[in-house]
Amino acid sequence: MTLKKRGAIEMSVGTIVTIVLLMGVLVLGVFLIQRIFSSATGAIDQVDTEIQGEIQKLFANEDTALVVYPASRQITLKKGDDPRGFAFSFKNRGVESRDYTYNIEAEPTFKFSEKCGSSFTASQANSWPLTTSGSFSLGPGNSLELPELVLFDIPDTAPPCTIPFKVNIQNETGTSVFVTIK
Question: What is the layout of strands, in order, in the sheet containing 66-69?
Answer without folding.
Answer: 66-69, 84-90, 148-152
